[in-house]
Design brief:
CATH class of the largest domain: Alpha Beta
CATH architecture of the largest domain: 3-Layer(aba) Sandwich
Structural class: alpha/beta
Number of helices: 10
Mean pLDDT: 82
Strand content: 15-25%
Largest sheet: 8 strands, mixed
CATH topology of the largest domain: Rossmann fold
Shape: elongated
Order of helices and strands: HEEHEEHEHEEEEHEHEHEEEHEHH
Low-confidence stretches: 1-10
Length: 330
Amino acid sequence: MAQKDQISTMTDATALELALRAAGGDRVQAVRPSKDGSASVVVDAEGLDDPARAALEQSLIAAAKSTGVETLRVAMSASRRRRRIIAVGSGKGGVGKSTLSANLAIALQRLGRPTGLVDADIYGPSQARLFATEDQRPEAKGNKLIPVMSRFGVPMVSMAHLVKPGQPIAWRGPMAGNALGQLIDAEWGAAELIVVDLPPGTGDVQLTMLQKYKPAGAVIVSTPQDLALIDATRAIGLFEQGDVPLIGMVENMAGYLCPHCGEASDPFGHGGAEAAGKTMNLPFLGRIPLALAIREGSDAGEPPAAGEGPLAEAYLAIARKVGAWLDSHA
């Protein structure tokens, strides 16, 4: 090749790379011109969904054509996203675990941590009601479910999205475990955290979660009274046996403020979960009051964490502690 042709080729390659980097920014990893006048580019597509990938590819092709390159092969690469699972559990039902899970997911999302939600209560799913997504159905992409996108920016999947309203689910343990796998292995897109609302107790679904999916940490929900704390201790023991780190404990239904006279009372006691956590060296994440607004918002598909005011701040405070724990255990 003559020296003049070499200089021309080098100039064209430089112009191509500059144009591609202007279009793709830091995502452009390598540019390889070919002798036939075409070129290839390797792009980091980490965190991009399908529409964003397609838009980036078209921008790069247009940039290449502006430099005279008519054929550009775009190779999208992405390291496997490391999603971390937060298991929310309790030893018994009726302590507000599902409500806490829903509001925790929304609060984490509001704090800038892309979060998804799995309703793992196979036999008694409730998250679709809490998010007002009961009439929606997840789509499928290959052998994976595409979660329903809630209006709060939290993608979610629940058995309630897959069966008719009110239809009983009478499955034996292995079938429930397989269903859990379908929910957790969904196509989560940009979500970095997955909050899993576990069913109450210490049965097959919990064992499947511990053995197959290994949560990054667990949040324990209890009410203040002794009976609930005894059951919560069983859930703590299960997570410890599975070597799942305990993020901390939340005391739910902690105190009631009468909406008529303003008098405060403690129908379920006060401080029991915090005291129990101290005896087990378990961090206390915060308490949520027994408030009429939580019940009304939950029934209406308007979780308090999505709004403003003291109740929203209570959930955000818990989410901040969970986030800080995750950062310190990265």
